Each structure stands twice: as C-alpha cells, then as structure tokens.
Amino acid sequence: xxxxxxxxxxxxxxxxxxxxxxxxxxxxxxxxxxxxxxxxxxxxxxxxxxxxxxxxxxxxxxxxxxxxxxxxxxxxxxxxxxxxxxxxxxxxxxxxxxxxxxxxxxxxxxxxxxxxxxxxxxxxxxxxxxxxxxxxxxxxxxxxxxxxxxxxxxxxxxxxxxxxxxxxxxxxxxxxxxxxxxxxxxxxxxxxxxxxxxxxxxxxxxxxxxxxxxxxxxxxxxxxxxxxxxxxxxxxxxxxxxxxxxxxxxxxxxxxxxxxxxxxxxxxxxxxxxxxxxxxxxxxxxxxxxxxxxxxxxxxxxxxxxxxxx
Length: 310
Description:
Layout: E1 3-7, E2 10-16, H1 31-44, H2 50-65, E3 69-74, E4 77-80, E5 88-96, E6 99-108, H3 114-144, H4 155-172, E7 176-183, H5 186-193, H6 195-212, E8 218-223, E9 226-232, H7 236-251, E10 255-256, E11 261-262, E12 266-272, H8 279-295, E13 301-303
Parallel strand pairs: 12-13
Antiparallel strand pairs: 1-2, 2-5, 3-4, 3-6, 5-6, 7-9, 7-12, 8-9, 10-11
Helix pairs in contact: 1-2, 1-3, 2-3, 5-6, 6-7
C-alpha cells in the first residue's frame, strides 16, 4: 500500500513496506535515538557532496534502525551498502516541490514494524533538505564546467580533464592524442549571416563532433570557434582517421538561418603525447599543427611530428 508523508515542501512516498496508512503512531524515543535526532541535522550540514552525505546518514542511523543494507539511486548516483538479498524492505521515493530527489531503500532480515517505519520517516524528513542542497550543488558544478551554447565541456573542464588524462596515460602506459579544430573564416559567417547564424554553426559543429567520437572520447569548446578533443588510448594515426571523419562530415553540412543556407569547413591540428611531455606542451604542438593547417589552405588536417629524442 502506497503511503505518503509531507513535511513542509518535502514528500516521502512509501512504495514498498508494511506501514498501516490509517494508523496514527506516536513513538517514544530512547535516549540513544534522541541523541541521534539531536545531532543529525548539524552532521548532515557538514558536506555538500551527495555520496558523503548518504554515508553520514547511514552511519548515524544504522544503529537505531537496524537495517542490513542501504540503497540510494538518483541520476547516476548509486550508493549501495550491501548486495545481499533480504526478505523485508522499505522503499521510499523522495520529492520536494514536485522535484524528484531519489529513491531510498532499506532492507533487513526481519520485518519493519510500524514503529520502525515511523522512526525512519522522521529521520528521512531530516535528510530530504540536505539531499536537495547536494543535488543543487552538483548541478551548479556541472553548469560551471559546461558551455551553455553547445552543451560541451568548457575550457575549465578541459584543463581539469587534460591533467587527469595525461596522468592516466602515464600510469597505464597508454597513448593519448589531442586534437584542436577551428572553424575556417568564422568571422565571415558572422559578418555575412549574423551572429545567430554563427551560433548555429557552433552548435551544429558540436553535434557533428559528438556523433563522430567514441563514447570514451571527450570534446570541449575551448573558446570562440575553437574546440579540443581528448582521445585516450589513441595514437596519432588513429586520431587522424577520426579527425578526417569530422572534417569531411562538417564540409557536407548546410546550415539554414530561415532565409539562406550556408556551409563551412574546419581545420584540425593533432599531437600525440610524448615521453615526459606535459599537458600544456601537448596543446602547444597541436595548436602549431592547427596553425600549419590554416596556412596551407584550410579545410585540412595536420599532424604534429613526434619530438626528436635528445
């Protein structure tokens, strides 16, 4: 039987469990339980990281609820304490102001009593607002690393990822290749068709890149009409194939501004990570290759030569 609890703007929906919805239950808190309720709000305010918050809630409440496993699921966040199957569970859907905050499930070997469920619901009312704050924080972080026009990662996201990818390539002795691409004569698009058409070209290019790359590859809008691709576990020869696929696909695009159609091309520069090379140097070599592509007539891909060993 589905049962709902409202606490201010928060709503808890018991989707699975044994609560008698028509029964008004008053629980008498033990000294231990009272201490948990007294300290839990301040403890839950110590972090804005969702995984840490859930771990704190689990740690503080396990002793008084006696659950054997703890499961939370929300848009890519999955916190599971145990994979063991148990016969009895309480499964709640958490909401606030009509916004979904996640599903939380507790299980154990013996049945949850009505008193247990009432106690759990009182505790969940303390958890809902901190979960909402953590989700808003995650959203803000994601927005800060995303280009609002194209939906790709922005320059800050690229710089963070480059450091990580270089470290992983070194640690696992794998190839890493960086590709820089730039729309040819982008200023002419803005001048001849207007800035809205320029924005349209950027969005179409971003979509074409996404459709061409592998799931493991990542694209970023570095700034203006310049984009950067990080291709892990990929050497320069394989990256050249990917780059050419993008270049040809872009050259076949027709954009429409409602009145006129226009096309555009891109030039690309490629560099593969060399021994002892830092991320900024890898970018500089790819950028130099891009400059050469522009100088040799545009709509072409140029691969930077390997660094000669001393």
